Structures are given as C-alpha cells and as structure tokens.
Amino acid sequence: MGILEVKGVGKRFGGLQALSDVNLSVAENTVHAIIGPNGAGKSTLLNCFVGKLIPDTGSVMFNGESVLGRKPHEINQMGISRVFQTPEIFTDLTVMENVMISCFAHRDGAFRLHPFETVAHETDIIEQAEKMLLDVNMADKRNMHAASLSRGDKRRLEMAMCLAQEPRLLLLDEPTAGMARADTNNTIDLLKEIKEKRDITMAIIEHDMHVVFSLAERITVLAQGTPLVEDTPENIKGHPKVKEAYLGESV
Amino acid sequence: MKILGLSAKDTRFLLIVIFLTLATPILLQPFPEGSGLATFNAGYPDLMQRFAIFGIFAIGFNILFGLTGYLSFGHAAFLGVGSYTVVWMYKLLDYNVVWGLPLAVITSGIFALLIGFVSLRRSGIYFSILTLAFAQMSYNLAYSVLTPITNGETGLQVYSSDSQVLLGASEPTTPHFFGIVMRDNFWQPNFGGWQFTFNNGYYFTAIIAIIVFYISLRIFRSPFGLMLRAIKTNQTRLNYTGINTRPYTLAAFVISGMYAGLAGGLMAAMDPLAGAERMQWTASGEVVLMVILGGAGTLMGPILGAGFIKYFENIFSKINDQILQGWFSWMPDWLSGLLIEISHFFVGKSWHLTLGLLFMLVVIFLPGGLVEAGQRIARLFKKKPPENGGKGSDHHPQPAPHVAE
C-alpha cells in the first residue's frame, strides 16, 4: 500500500480526454518520477493530487484518506506540499518571512486569529525558519527581499518553504524547467540532500531525463493520458514502449 | 526603551505619533492671527476633529487595502452605520457618547461581516464592484425604504419628543463624555498674536485615534499581519501552504469595517447628526485616495493622506479673491490681476484641481505615497549603508522596508 494511491482516474476537458484510467501507487520514502511527452497529462494528474482539479472518475487516496473534493489548503494540511514549475514565493516579503509563513502554517493550521502576538517574539518559529534556511544554504540571504533572488535561489526558497512544513509527500512540477545546466545540477544535489536528511516521499514530474535518472527510484511513463509502464530507471531506459512514446516510433 | 510589547523602534515611532497628535492644536497654528498667512492655519477644532476622525477611517482601511490588497469601494457604508447608531443612542438614552460609540463599532462590525462574507467570494475588480454595490444599496435604502430608521433626506437628529430615558436634569444637551462637552474648548490661550484652541472633542478623538493607531501597529507586527501581507503578494502560494485565506481576509475586512464604524460614530459625537450622504460612493472613494496618497501598506501613510486631503478641502477651498488680493497687493495691478486669475484654477472652488494634480504626481512619481517621499528625503540626509543583521538582530527578523515608518 503506497502513501499515494491513484485508482482509475479520468479527466476530460471538453473534447479532450486528458487522463483515462490512471492507476499509480507511490511507495513511502521513495522518489517517484512521472515522465511523458508534452500533452501526456502529467500536470493534469498532479493538479488532481492537490485539489486544483477534481477528476471525473476514480479515486486519489493519500495515507488512506481521499483527497478528492478537498481544497488545496486542506490537502496541504494533510501533508502534501507542492513545488511549482515557476517558483511561487512571496516576492514582497523577506526570505525569512517566507519561510516563517510555512512554519506558522505548520504550527497553527489553516487559520488562527492572532492579531496581538508579535512575529519578533515567536522565537520557536524564528529558530525553525533559520534552521531551514541553513539547510538549503540560504542563511546569509535571510533579510533579502524574495523578489531580488536569482531563479535558482527562488527555487531553493520554495523548497525550504515546503520542507518547513515537514510534509510526508513533496510534489515537484518540473523543478528544473528553464534552468541552466549548472542550476539543474544544483537542484539535483539539493533534492538528493533533502532525501538523505529526512523521511520524505517525492513525486516528480519532469521532462529532463538527466534529472529523472539522477533521482528517481521508480518511474511511471505517461502517454496520451494513460500510464504506459512503471518500473525502475534501469528497466525504463531501454524499454521499447518508452522510446516509441517519446520518438513516435520504435527505434 | 520598549513599551506595550513594541520593539524599541516602534516605541519611538508611537511616541512621535502621540506627541504630534497631542500637539496638533499648536503645530497647525504656525502663523499669528491677522497675518497674511493666517489662512493656512488649520488649528481650529472642527478641522482638527476631522483630521483625527478621517485618520481613524484611513488607518482602518489600510488594514484591509494596504495589507491584503483588497480594494473596497464601499467602506463609507460602515461610516454611515456608525453615525446612525450613535445618533440613535442619543435619541433613546442620552447625549453621553459612551453608549453609542462601542455599539457603533459592534453594529458596523456585524455589517462588515455580512458584506464581507459575500464580497470576499471574489477578488480583484469584482470584489471592488461588489463592495461598491453594497454601499450604494445601503445609501439608497437609507434614503428611501429605511426612512423610519434614518429619517431619509433630512438626516437623523435628536428631537425634543425623543425618549432619552437616561437624560438627567442638569445633563448637557449636546454630545458629551461623562460631562465633558465635545464642542467646548478647555483652554484658549493667546500668546502675542498666536491664538491656540484646545478643544474637548479634538482631544477625545485624538486619544481614541492614538489607541486605534497602536492597535493597527500591533496588527502590522503580528503573525496575522504577516499572513495579510502574504495574501497581497501571492494567494496561490498561501493556499498551497495550507492557509485558508478567506477567514484572514474576512477578519481584515471586519476590523477595517469596525474602524470605519468608529470614525462614523465619532462624526456623530462631534456633531449630533447622521445623514445618508455619508454613505455615498464619493465618501468611499475619498478614503481610497487618502490611503494611496499617503502610502498604502505603511503605518504613517493613511494618517498623512487623511490630513493632506482634509487640509486641502478646508484650507485651499477657502482662499478667495479677498485673500489673494491681500497677498498680491504689493505687486503692480496688472501682475496681481494676472496672478489672481491663474490662482482661480487652483484655490477656492477649484481646490479639487490642485488635489487632483498632486494625486497624479504622487501616483506617477511616488508609488509609495507621501511616506516614500519622506523616506527619499531622509535618505538624502543620511547616506548610510543599511545595517544588515548586526549582533542584536541575529534572532529577530528585520521588518520588510515597506511597512516600516
């Protein structure tokens, strides 16, 4: 029984069957990659996990509970964090404040009215956030405005924000999209480090095969809205069906 | 020095605000009576009261608009609700404002809860339009169907036939606070041509303004305030960080509605009248202008903006030909005539033009409002590099620059 169990998920947009009968099981404490050519339905599938889309058919269970029909913030509080294709951070706030918001969300839940406490007096939150920034090597940038960070640092910050919540499942939507090779390698190292340091399950949607084969322990190949194969990276590499899906014909 | 749970910097800031507020009757009276520039004196009770009241209105509006970015075009509705509540308490109980003001805060809070609950289902322009629609509805209802409560066009006022069950025989028959009559002056000294007026009503509103300013300062520095600023920056990220943004925005909406209700109540506390025109959209628009002009999302901005607009409205509008002639009398006739003609566009009835131009200049060149202007000037004087994480600040996050000052 995996931590994330997807059964018979289908989603239709007008005339387009984006997903049909997707079955997927992500085992706890693994890195599971979902790959596939453009338009295979990777992002649609991810959006079904986080509450942005509700599938027409099937079920998505996280840790034994259904996520369907729940709002994004509820799903997040269940223990699923998400990294976006373009880093989504609070650009008007400082790096430190960005991470502190995650710490507050982790401690206080979806809503807490605390207008007369003072942020500067929340020593446990501040300590937590500082530790998190050290973990991603951004402690020296704590007082910078998040807007002024480089793309790579924004990614790091977003990762720190997700990890500060101690999620059980981290979803990554093309974490290296649009990055230079050096930045991509940094991100791979960061993700490896994260994986080593804590018990966390990751599901990665990725285009870049270099990233996929450096990180993934399991790979699901999606093509035209259905899973083609699921296997270990070694077996996927030489799989004829995968080559066909990517190159249009068997090589 | 630190007081009331504030940092040393905020304490200093609060003390400055307290000093400025309490010294207003002196500070706004820089020119001796009878001099040519006496027109620019603003230290008379009526105007000072308005500074404080609109300051409160703008401080509250800033908690919603400045922090969350939700632009409400209907906050005047709460102003009206506050006024009506206070006048009703005069009619039913007596002229002591102690009954009406807390109730005004509560009723406007309930109103804000209802309007906010519906309006906050949408964001951006749709939210603005919904709030505008609600406010205009309230305004039109106050004029028509709700006449039994609002007394329609005449406006709500106290009549001798009203019950006023608590009214004692020796009690003042104008608004008062346990016998301190709002319209009375407690000291009117004259120092060699300088005339100062210390008015009960002004100090009553000023003390309330200081208290609510302190509350807004605490909100700005709280985790709640941090969440509100996060909402303005990126609601998507906040949702995917496990935060339900709706109750946060609703709380901000209700708090700002309560501030508006308090301001409306104070208006009726200074002058025992309440009219529907207080709820009109122009009044809602005015507070938006105040906050943007002063600097949205800053602590001092709304107060500066409110002061600026009320000053223009009251001082520039009363500069008439006679005053202009007095100023230019030493010039040759043709020149003074020309200058008076030109001035006609900017002062007297045309004060709106001056304000409009000023507003445009601020929005184009100083998006951070008057506060940004102040910060730029301050930077010119001290060209120090910003201190970055000294020893003492290691364990305290620095406030983001845009909410400081």
Automatic annotation (TrEMBL), chain A:
PROSITE patterns: ABC_TRANSPORTER_2. Pfam families: ABC_tran (PF00005). It comes from the Bacteria. One of its GO terms (molecular function) is ATP binding. Keywords: ATP-binding, Nucleotide-binding, Transport. Residues 4-249 form the ABC transporter domain. PANTHER family: CONSERVED COMPONENT OF ABC TRANSPORTER FOR NATURAL AMINO ACIDS-RELATED. This is High-affinity branched-chain amino acid transport ATP-binding protein BraF. It comes from Sinisalibacter lacisalsi.
From TrEMBL, chain B:
InterPro entries: ABC_transp_permease, LivM-like. Keywords: Cell membrane, Membrane, Transmembrane, Transmembrane helix. Pfam families: BPD_transp_2 (PF02653). It is a multi-pass membrane protein. The chain crosses the membrane at residues 12-31, 51-71, 76-93, 99-118, 125-146, 201-220, 247-267, 287-309, 330-347, 353-374. It comes from the Bacteria. CDD domains: TM_PBP1_LivM_like. Residues 384-405 are annotated as: Disordered. The keyword Transmembrane helix applies. Its main location: membrane. The keyword Transcription regulation does not apply. It is found in: Cell membrane. This is Branched-chain amino acid ABC transporter permease. It comes from Sinisalibacter lacisalsi. The lineage of its organism: Bacteria, Pseudomonadati, Pseudomonadota, Alphaproteobacteria, Rhodobacterales.
